[in-house]
Amino acid sequence: MKNGEVVQTRHIAPALPMFEDAFCAFTRGALVETESGPMAFEDLLPGDTVLTQTGASETVLWKGSVMLIPGRQDSHGRTRPLTRIMADTFGMQKPMSGVIVGPSARLLGTPSHLRHVNGEGPVLTPVHEFQDGMSVIETLPPTPIELFHICLKRHAVINVDGLQFETYHPGVNAVRRLSHSLRSIYLNLFAHIDTLSDFGPLVMPRAGDGEVDAITA
Question: Which residues form the Hedgehog/Intein (Hint) domain (predicted)?
Fold first, then answer.
């Protein structure tokens, strides 16, 4: 909260992609780099500090979690696959060991089939775009999985298991994707903000659906 207190709340929200994306990034056991060394996401609390790509130490303002059954189809026939990245896929200790991330995780990097999107510039890319069936594979566990995401004061890139992932941001098109009737329900999930603009600008462009979310000030 703005007064420095940590408050835990439980919400019932629509099973829509924009709501689910706020939670479905990191699994239990995924290690994020903090001032005190690697910490599992399930142990991270608002008020803890994590290290960003720039080397700065930033305070976690919000942490969300959700229980998901990736292999179960929802009422629209959708599943929410997880992605397993094998050790050393992107170089030595990248990741340090096999890591499993959720459907809304975005990794700093550009697979070959998306290099036309932003040239040689850095891009945050949905992790499923890296799936190759060998080192990066889809997995659909039939049992419940707890997933997490975090917000800092501003959108940032953090180190998770030796790889660089983004913190949560709804994207620059959030206003168009979210109807006015659902906006208050969505904003109620986040105790540290009042409006969508409070998320601030993207730290770098994001790839998705063949397009790039540009940085906006």
Answer: 24-171
